Amino acid sequence: MVKTINPKDKCPRCGQGTLVTDANTGENFCGKCGFVITDKVEESGPEWRSFSNEGENKSRAGVPTSLAMHDMGLATVINPQNRDATGKPLTAAMKSTIERLRTWDSRSQVHEPVDRNFRQAFSELDRLKDKLAVGDSVIEKAAYIYRKALEKGLVRGRSISALIASALYAACRDTETPRTLKDIGQASNIKRKDIARCYRLLLRELNLKMPVVDPVKCISRIASKAGLSEKTKRKATKILQTAEEQKISAGKDPMGLAAAALYVACVTNGENKTQRDVAEAAGVTEVTIRNRYKGLKLALNL
């Protein structure tokens, strides 16, 4: 296959012919006088070729290793179909060899209780990932915390579902992803107090240090649920930043504080939203919003 590189590039020897590349030999030469400029051209195409019948499946490697897989993605799978890469049936001798390899492969796979525990826990974690729409970094962190808990023997006698849910909540807190205990409880169908109990156990036994939840992180989530404008969001962010500077946000529920700041911003900007609308979007009660609203009003002289 011969192709012209750039019609504007002229031969340095004759100054008239255009430069041409031969993809098979890797030569870069003049199309008129035949002067060879370079005889080794770097291959710019993909480094793999497909030998399978699928055509499109040209991946050389499998999925990357991940803590959120029971075997970290390092397992071997031998295709159950007795066909080679081109799709032809295997010979009788090769068939018996592959059968023996399959037997040893399945025997070498870990079938210990720990492995079964990881399978169950990480399938639950995968389900929660889709329900709560959290990123891969959060899931990796949750899997790491769960593996540490299993190493310490914290899972024995406790619910796997509750412990993986609490590990996910801990990962959300650590990565500052705004997900509440209530959200995780609803997604996992486990009581909030059970998740909270397991979460406290993880903090105590694994010596985890969690950052304080920033109420500003909760604003965009509540605002999008309640259908508030960008102007109101910016105003609420300013109110919370001022409240933080004056140290009145300490010890307050971040979701309630963010909801109250948004309500204050709605009142200031004349946006027609009731306390109930904001409370439902934030998952807190109207009483909480009223109490936080009073506190913000007094502290900031609104």
TrEMBL record:
Q: Where is the TFIIB-type domain?
A: 7-38
Q: Which PANTHER family match?
A: TRANSCRIPTION INITIATION FACTOR IIB, TRANSCRIPTION INITIATION FACTOR IIB-RELATED
Where do the sequence repeat units fall?
123-206
* GO MF term set: DNA-binding transcription factor activity; TBP-class protein binding; translation initiation factor activity; zinc ion binding
Q: Briefly, what is this protein's role?
A: Stabilizes TBP binding to an archaeal box-A promoter. Also responsible for recruiting RNA polymerase II to the pre-initiation complex (DNA-TBP-TFIIB).
CDD domains listed in its UniProt record? CYCLIN_TFIIB_archaea_like_rpt1, CYCLIN_TFIIB_archaea_like_rpt2
Entry-linked InterPro entries: Cyclin-like_dom, Cyclin-like_sf, TFIIB, TFIIB_arc, TFIIB_CS, TFIIB_cyclin, Znf_TFIIB
Q: Which UniProt keywords apply?
A: Metal-binding, Repeat, Transcription, Transcription regulation, Zinc, Zinc-finger
Show the SUPFAM superfamilies listed in the entry. Answer: Cyclin-like, Zinc beta-ribbon
Q: Which family does it belong to?
A: Belongs to the TFIIB family.
Superkingdom per UniProt: Archaea
The molecule here is called Transcription initiation factor IIB
Q: Name one Pfam family in it.
A: Zn_Ribbon_TF
GO CC annotations?
transcription preinitiation complex
In Gene Ontology terms, what is a biological process of this protein?
transcription preinitiation complex assembly
UniProt key word Secreted: no
- Record-annotated residues binding Zn(2+)? C11, C14, C30, C33
